[in-house]
Amino acid sequence: MPPNIFSPLSISTIIKIHQKKKTKSTMSNDETPIRFGIIGCAGIARKISRAINLSPNCTLYALASRSIEKAHNFAIKNNLFSDSLKIYGNYSEILDDPFVDAVYMPLPTTFHLQWAILAAEKKKHLLLEKPTALNVEELDKILDACDKNGVQFMDASMWYHHPRTGKTKEMILDSNLFGQVKAIHSSSTYAPGQEFLENNIRVKPDLDALGALGDAGWFCIGSILWAMNQTLLMTVTVLPNVARNSAGVILTCSASLYWEKEETVATFYCSFIAHETMNLRVYGSNGTCYLYDFIIPFEEDSASFNFTSSAKFVDLHIGWNVKPQVVEVTSQLPQEGYMIQEFADLVKAIKVSRSKPEIK
Predict the structure, then answer these.
(1) Residue 8 belongs to a domain
(2) CA 124, 349, 128: angle at the middle one, nearest 5?
(3) DSSP 8-state assignment for residue 206
(4) CATH number for the domain including 187?
(5) Do 214 and 320 fall into the same domain?
(6) Which residue in 135, 139, 141, 136 sits closest to 155, CA to CA?
């Protein structure tokens, strides 16, 4: 890879890629389920296949891997077999299947450009695993192919679709409660061990060259842009603790982001060598909001966040006038189920109502 793939421009790349989110749903009354195909048997595909089966508006129709044996074994291991499930031993066959409406693609990032464009050209709506591309130019080509072929694109970041996320944004946007966003901090870290650091595709420069920045850092940067309503920032500064493996892939990274007009600063830390964290803290001029598990909630059917508004010290500074409010949000589906359901709604609107793909 070029030596500057790990420069501050890498973070700017992910920031710009995040500007191209498409998440809004349009409902349709047609009850025909959207037929999903999964391209690639990565571990995350287990979670998405379960979500497809839990979602009422879609069905898992086809599964493809690089060999028929791998696809077959994946289906057995995850109890996916049914009379209607199609098993393919290469990616091209699933794209040629005229009954597949949409595909979920959890391939290594290096392969996204080729297979995402082919999927769009085959008129398959595209749910693409993060990071969606290695750079902005590649993503622009993917989005252009989706636009030309009238198919829906969505980045498969699940946490945006949890009901808690919408409730959190509602309270942050309340100027009386929260004021203006002045600072943000996000972290996404985990320490999977030596086997991962030596053999996982996320530490291989020819497969997922952005390493921890593209994997864990994707969530950090996305959450920061989410808190800033996707406002484009002015300055990115990489802090000097970037660690890489022997192949040059990032294992840990932190940076600061600055919005000059809004006078807002954000920081993040991502790592493959630190204990699990999934923190998001947003500081306003009149409130604060803390999420300790924003990427994967501690529990599947309920999630919470701490919110404090108009807090002051009491007399003599011996305490506070208010305690943080714990806001609890229940959910009927896991967050990936909501993501699949929303994506299927968008696809249904295009198929049945001749709607345009949502470009948000």
Answers:
(1) no
(2) 35
(3) T
(4) 3.30.360.10
(5) yes
(6) 139
Instruction: Report yes or no: 161 and 342 within 8 Å, Cβ to Cβ.
Output: yes
Q: Quickly count: other Cβ atoms within 10 Å of residue 78's Cβ.
A: 17
What is the β-pairing status of strands 34-39 and 102-105? parallel
pLDDT in tens, 193-248: 999 999 999 999 999 999 999 999 999 999 999 999 999 888 999 999 899 999 99
8 Å CB contact between 34 and 59: yes
DSSP element (H, E) containing 194: helix 194-199
pLDDT tens digits, 289-313: 999 999 999 999 999 999 999 999 9
304 contacts 164 by C-beta, under 8 angstroms: yes
| Count of domains forming the chain | 2
Sign of the torsion angle spanned by Cα atoms 137, 143, 146, 147: negative
Pair 116, 103: CB distance under 8 Å: no
Distance CA 50, CA 47 (A): 5
Residue 341 is part of a domain; what is its CATH number? 3.40.50.720
Determine the Cα angle at 133 with ends 195 and 16, to 5°.
120
Give every CB contact of residue 289 below 8 A, 6+ residues apart in sequence: 168, 171, 172, 178, 280, 281, 282, 305, 306, 307, 308
